[in-house]
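Chain X:
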Amino acid sequence: MLVSEFSHAMCSAGGCQISERTGEAEMSEGKLPEPWLRGTWTEVNPVVRAVLHALELAEEDLWKWCHPLTLEQLNAASGRIAPVAFQLQHIARSLDRLLTYAEGGPLSEGQLAALKTELEPASSAKELFRELAVALERSKERLLALQAVDFAAPRAVGTKQLPTTVGGLVVHIADHTQRHAGQAITTAKIVTMR
């Protein structure tokens, strides 16, 4: 059976099946398509909308695959692969840093201190997911506020003041979050197989 190359895009994780009759993706009852196909955020700048959808997808996938893990599993490293807890802390804290740069500000001492603790084991699964949920929600608010900013406006990143733009940072927020969400999910699958 040939499966459309777009079948993944039409379905959320586990939310569709391929029809034996037509070979096309069909939505399972009660399941939603991925956020970008739900018709949400239609009043928002298309670039910001895509980033908001990427954050929503990361949130849904992380809660599905990582939230059920025990604290021990969240903190478990697999060989040289970073623990799920690191990935979740890194997503939350890097969103704050990247948005600070996009807004044109320097990182605070608190942000720099938090960066240095991302590899530390989580002390509570509940607190880990609370930090992530708050960061994702706050990031959505901050992204909405960036709609009025010129995406070509220059910005500088890090102590080396590497050049980029508001648009470059906004797009990087989506791909960076998705990259680490994928790493967290892969690690979650590995630690649950032990």
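Chain Y:
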Amino acid sequence: MDGMILCDKPEGASSHDEVLRVRRALRGAKTGHAGTLDPFATGLLIVLVGRATRIARYILTLPKTYVTVARYGAAIKNAREARKSERVLNSLPLEIQKDIGWPVTPRQKRLSSNSWGRIL
């Protein structure tokens, strides 16, 4: 069997978990995915089967869109989550940081705003 399966990856499962589930359902067929979703993320995971696994490198270069939902004022359970949230906020473009009232450090002011575009 060759082709592409579009999986709605649930929160908590890794991309590898979903590929493994498809592989088991197809009784060991060659499978792979075209892009990784974090375990906490939900969304479309493209699972390639058989000879279709060869086109993964082309699919990975296609443009992607990410959508997120933020809850302002949500409680952070522990220090690890606080550091993780801080890293995410510090990586946002300066314009967004200013819009949400996040303090911008002098080092961040020196960085070019073009560097964010290369990350995306």
